[in-house]
């Protein structure tokens, strides 16, 4: 029998039931013990970092047009900056929210019951992903406002409009970066039946990029573009290769994006030749639009990576048997 | 025809889980899909609901194709999986409310229905307790409540009495039977043949992915066991009784077990049996007609299959 084209289509919308799943998952996240622990951890570290940062700022810098942005990035010795805290904690928070998304349903024997309701699997996966992302966005926004507020209290200088714009873009970049790790956790939660294995696998991926990718990128760059002491151009080639390899890591992309967004003085992310600096006013800040353009590839890279990971989880999940 | 399959087949790699199944279930029937574990019952059910894709063959449930029209199908078909799970930290009510939302029921309607199904399943008092405190029997009833929430036309139950104590199992079977009175078609699977045989209108016996026997329980007994009448008697002393009973023309078989004798006969010949026992000078303690059991049908069938092979 030749199936008519119409027969190959599924009936109805894949979004049926999406919001039911979304709100249930969101409520679960917000009321879970896991969330309490994360909130306390993040809160303490953020407040600590901002307080320490503000102390340094008060002592050292008197006149700075971008005081608010300095609050995000300033560090005082034992404590890292607020941004460093975020890039360390948010991947962990995303993994904590996502590592048992799908295998948890298997282990509680709820998956076949839920999928027997008139919804597609799409709705379940999207609902879970969006709920995780919304929860993280909520934490992030709360933290951000807290830090801005604390900055105001400690420093007493209101931020300008460009500064607020930069801060909001920074928020967006951070959310995209968090989305990547939520995607990783979602994939491992489909791949591994045991929640503990899934959590470990996701954390292993994170550790790999946080600790080892830098070293591996260096080795790869040396292999691809060896340094020749008699050829000055080889040094440039190696630097560029290193940059290309390290940009495969979401950590690098995020670090570069926020560097540009939070520091208006940065004009380029790659190596700059002395000839390119001719006529440039060194030290003068870039306008917001230019900084945004500079961070654009990194931002889109992070968002694309998130979508790619979600698509992978989607394909894996659609093919998975409902039965244990 | 509510459920109809033709040549339904499911292969996992080289393993054939379901092999060329032709199933026809009519409206208002209680149909038992019976067979040992791993004989393909659950796979069949998952294919009927579109939760797994058939390798070959066609399925129609209420005239709908489960792989292409799953949404309108699942709106009308309720499914209770084996070892059903709920969100433990949520209450019974919240669990049902989630299902109601997934079914797109408006809030007011879902409140009325949740109340009604919880009442009906005897869970009204524990409605606002977390499911983690529920016993296996209560979970099973909550599962049935969830199934009834969408007011289905067809209900599919996978091993509904598994893990229940005998009393709870009987109670649960009664609830299933009450669905038939409402005109709901019920398909249930079980490996506990004796438990479900009382409520099934028709049964299909599964073996290695194939439907080997199908029909009403009595018909199957008649067909497979030959004499459908099985008489059990207790008498003392038993000496010589076996020979005398064997001599009766209607008796095809006499077995001795720990409690007495079992006869297989083509007719209900209890009076003759009683007379024979008394004439032999023995004391008759009890005499009864046994209902044929599906376990026996199943065991005997496979005995014959093996002998034939």
TrEMBL record, chain A:
GO terms for cellular component: plasma membrane. One of its GO terms (molecular function) is ABC-type transporter activity. Keywords: Membrane, Transmembrane, Transmembrane helix. The chain crosses the membrane at residues 40-61, 81-102, 123-155, 167-192, 199-221, 295-317. This is ABC transporter permease.
Automatic annotation (TrEMBL), chain B:
Pfam families: ABC_tran. It comes from the Bacteria. The keyword Transport applies. Residues 3-233 form the ABC transporter domain. Transmembrane segments: none annotated. SMART domains: AAA. The keyword Transport applies. One of its GO terms (molecular function) is ATP hydrolysis activity. Keywords: ATP-binding, Nucleotide-binding, Transport. SUPFAM superfamilies: P-loop containing nucleoside triphosphate hydrolases. CDD domains: ABC_DR_subfamily_A (cd03230). Belongs to the ABC transporter superfamily. This is ABC transporter ATP-binding protein. The lineage of its organism: Bacteria, Thermotogati, Deinococcota, Deinococci, Thermales.
């Amino acid at each position: 029998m030749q199936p008519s084209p119409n027969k190959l289509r599924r009936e109805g919308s894949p979004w049926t039931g999406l919001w039911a799943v979304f709100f249930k998952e969101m409520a679960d996240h917000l009321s879970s013990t896991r969330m309490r622990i994360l909130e306390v951890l993040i809160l303490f570290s953020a407040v600590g970092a901002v307080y320490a940062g503000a102390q340094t700022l008060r002592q050292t810098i008197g006149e700075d047009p971008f005081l608010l942005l300095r609050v995000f990035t300033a560090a005082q010795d034992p404590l890292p900056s607020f941004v460093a805290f975020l890039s360390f904690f948010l991947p962990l928070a995303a993994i904590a929210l996502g590592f048992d998304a799908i295998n948890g349903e298997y282990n509680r024997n709820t998956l076949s019951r839920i999928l027997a309701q008139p919804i597609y699997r799409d709705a379940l996966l999207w609902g879970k992903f969006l709920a995780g992302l919304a929860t993280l966005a909520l934490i992030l926004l709360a933290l951000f406002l807290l830090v801005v507020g604390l900055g105001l209290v400690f420093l007493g200088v209101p931020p300008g409009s460009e500064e607020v714009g930069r801060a909001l873009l920074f928020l967006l970049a951070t959310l995209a970066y968090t989305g990547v790790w939520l995607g990783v956790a979602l994939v491992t939660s489909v791949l591994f039946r045991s929640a503990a294995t899934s959590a470990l696998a996701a954390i292993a991926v994170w550790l790999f990029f946080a600790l080892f990718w830098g070293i591996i990128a260096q080795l790869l760059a040396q292999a691809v573009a060896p340094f020749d002491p008699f050829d000055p151009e080889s040094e440039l080639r190696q630097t560029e290769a290193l940059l290309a390899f390290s940009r495969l890591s979401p950590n690098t992309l995020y670090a570069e994006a926020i560097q540009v967004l939070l520091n208006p003085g940065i004009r380029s992310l790659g190596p700059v030749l002395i000839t390119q600096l001719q006529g440039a006013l060194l030290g003068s800040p870039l306008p917001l639009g230019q900084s945004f353009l500079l961070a654009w590839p990194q931002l889109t890279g992070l968002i694309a990576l998130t979508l790619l990971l979600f698509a992978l989880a989607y394909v894996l999940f659609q093919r998975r048997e409902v039965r244990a | 025809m509510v459920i109809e399959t033709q040549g339904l087949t499911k292969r996992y790699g080289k393993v054939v889980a379901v092999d060329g199944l032709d199933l026809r279930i009519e409206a208002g029937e209680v149909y038992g899909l019976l067979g040992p574990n791993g004989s393909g019952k659950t796979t069949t059910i998952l294919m009927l609901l579109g939760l797994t894709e058939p390798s070959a063959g066609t399925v129609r449930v209420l005239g709908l194709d489960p792989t292409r029209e799953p949404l309108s199908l699942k709106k009308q078909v309720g499914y209770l999986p084996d070892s059903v799970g709920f969100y433990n930290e949520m209450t019974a009510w919240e669990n049902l409310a989630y299902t109601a939302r997934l079914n797109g029921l408006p809030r007011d309607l879902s409140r009325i229905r949740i109340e009604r199904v919880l009442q009906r399943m005897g869970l009204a008092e524990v409605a606002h307790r977390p499911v983690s405190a529920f016993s296996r029997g209560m979970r099973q009833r909550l599962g049935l409540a969830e199934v009834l929430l969408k007011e289905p036309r067809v209900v599919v139950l996978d091993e509904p009495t598994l893990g229940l104590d005998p009393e709870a199992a009987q109670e649960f079977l009664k609830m299933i039977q009450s669905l038939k009175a409402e005109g709901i078609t019920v398909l249930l699977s079980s490996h506990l043949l004796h438990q479900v045989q009382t409520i099934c209108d028709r049964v299909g016996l599964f073996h290695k992915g194939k439907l080997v026997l199908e029909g009403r329980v009595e018909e199957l007994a008649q067909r497979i066991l030959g004499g459908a009448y099985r008489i059990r008697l207790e008498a003392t002393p038993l000496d010589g009784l076996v020979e005398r009973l064997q001599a009766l023309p209607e008796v095809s078989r006499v077995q001795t077990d720990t409690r007495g004798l079992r006869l297989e006969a083509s007719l209900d010949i209890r009076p003759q049996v009683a007379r024979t026992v008394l004439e032999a000078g023995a004391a008759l303690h009890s005499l009864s007609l046994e209902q044929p059991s599906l376990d026996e049908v199943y065991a005997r069938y496979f005995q014959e299959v093996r002998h034939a092979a």
